[in-house]
Specification:
The protein is of the alpha/beta class and 427 residues long. The protein has 3 domains: 175 residues, MoaB/Mog-like domain (Molybdenum Cofactor Biosythetic Enzyme, Chain A); 72 residues, 2-Layer Sandwich (Alpha-Beta Plaits), CATH 3.30.70; 152 residues, Alpha-Beta Complex (Maf protein). The chain has 14 helices and 17 strands.
Length: 427
């Protein structure tokens, strides 16, 4: 077992659910909790996963409690729902030698929530949610039904959270601070971290640029988290002076990151684009073919986007491009639907239709069929229109159909951001 640093209690994470062992769902809870606990002054000793069977939950809890020690904590997720395969409460009550009893406050709140949804009664199965081991603290769940639970005994300290990621994150963020403070007192941060979101550059190229600027022996670690949307960079350092070391390294790599990074509290480039357009007083309209409305969906997923996004058209067929966006039928005939002329006309047409300052047109070949030697699968043409200029550009995107669509949307967002922020100048 790793020996925790002074004033840094240990923690073990236990995720529960058959779907985790069968590969039906990626265990994102464990990764999120590991970062959460580390940032709250814990040393994460182990991460375990078990199925829904009581024997597996029992052995998993016993192992986790043993590893965390009496001075640490186990945080478990899953198995708190209303169905017969949700057995975590029963196993915990048995391990801690305490009876389960219906918590009247939890039950009353469940009745109230169901009535507020227009249901005249609470299903009998949901009564299981109100079962609480005697002596456990109820952690109220504002975004779901099952509350979290915190309890301690001779076996150790244990926190139970729902397995639904949004509920787990809410309860951890909003409810666990006072519990940890009461159990462990002040816990100095073990590390300093900075997350930098980048897009528009492959991981290998980014690494080549960055690692030549990272001074050896800086005491700063750099982790790359690539996806089809971009590369998330995590800079971290531990021990005295960690914040100063991070600041120094980030200053040294600033010029490398300038063209590719973006600021977004949610991590979504669409949020940054909306802020940039809002700052310029520009509204946007979207004309999409191969992306099928995905760009509009990305933008409108951001709360408050209605003051910037006016609307969009999914013009999948050539006829739709001509009749809805005023694309010249002869241009389609001459160069095909995937061409500079059509992409530019789509952007201009949709901006005109919605009286928007910014128009975007996307037309391409997402595959798997439809490609040709001069226009292979992954070829996408983009058209952009702003109050200051109009331009078109082609991109050849790798991957299967779904990846091409996601990458096309990300490319459009990146170009909108760089143009609105004048990062690359006007070309």
């Amino acid at each position: 077992m790793t020996t925790p640093a002074p004033n840094h209690p240990s923690a073990v994470i236990l995720t529960i659910g058959d779907e985790l062992l069968l590969g039906d769902r990626t265990d994102t809870n464990a990764a999120w909790l590991a970062a959460f606990l580390t940032n709250h002054g814990f040393v994460v000793e182990r991460i375990l996963s078990v199925g829904d069977a009581p024997t597996g939950i029992r052995e998993g809890l016993r192992s986790a409690l043993r590893w965390s020690g009496r001075a640490g904590v186990v945080v478990a997720t899953g198995g708190l729902g209303p169905t017969e395969d949700d057995r975590t409460r029963e196993v915990v009550a048995e391990l801690f030698g305490t009876p389960l009893a219906t918590d009247s406050d939890v039950l009353d709140e469940l009745h109230r929530r169901f009535r507020s949804r227009g249901m005249d009664r609470l299903p009998a199965t949901n009564h299981r949610i109100a079962l609480v081991p005697e002596g456990a603290e109820v952690l109220w769940n504002d975004v779901g039904s099952a509350p979290g639970l915190a309890l301690e005994g001779a076996e150790g300290r244990l926190v139970l959270l729902p397995g639904v990621p949004s509920e787990m994150k809410h309860l951890a963020s909003e409810r666990l601070g006072p519990v940890f403070d009461r159990w462990f007192g002040p816990r100095p941060s073990r590390s300093a971290r900075r997350i930098v979101q980048t897009t528009g550059i492959p991981e290998s190229a980014l690494a080549e640029h960055l690692e030549s600027r990272m001074p050896s022996g800086s005491g700063v670690n750099l982790a790359y988290h690539p996806s089809v949307r971009g590369v998330k960079l995590v800079f971290s350092s531990t021990g005295p002076g960690a914040e100063d070391r991070l600041t120094d390294v980030l200053r040294k790599v600033d010029s490398v990151l300038e063209a590719w990074r973006y600021e977004s509290p949610s991590g979504d480039l669409a949020e940054s684009v909306l802020e940039a357009l809002r700052a310029r007083g520009w509204r946007i309209a979207l004309a999409e073919s191969c992306t099928g409305g995905m760009l509009a969906a990305r933008l409108t997923d951001i709360p408050g986007s209605s003051d910037v996004v006016l609307g969009g058209v999914v013009a999948y067929s050539d006829r739709a491009k001509v009749t809805l966006l005023d694309v010249d039928a002869e241009a389609v005939e001459r160069g095909g639907a995937v061409s500079a002329a059509v992409a530019g006309a789509m952007a201009a047409g949709v901006a005109r239709r919605f009286e928007a300052e910014v128009g975007v047109g996307i037309t391409g070949i997402a595959g798997p069929g439809g490609g040709s030697p001069d226009k292979p699968v992954g070829t996408v043409w983009f058209g952009f229109r702003t109050p200051e200029r109009e331009w078109t550009e082609p991109v050849r995107l790798p991957g299967g159909r779904s990846e091409v669509k996601v990458r096309a949307v990300q490319h459009a967002l990146h170009r909108l951001l760089t143009d609105a922020n004048s990062i690359h100048g006007r070309g």
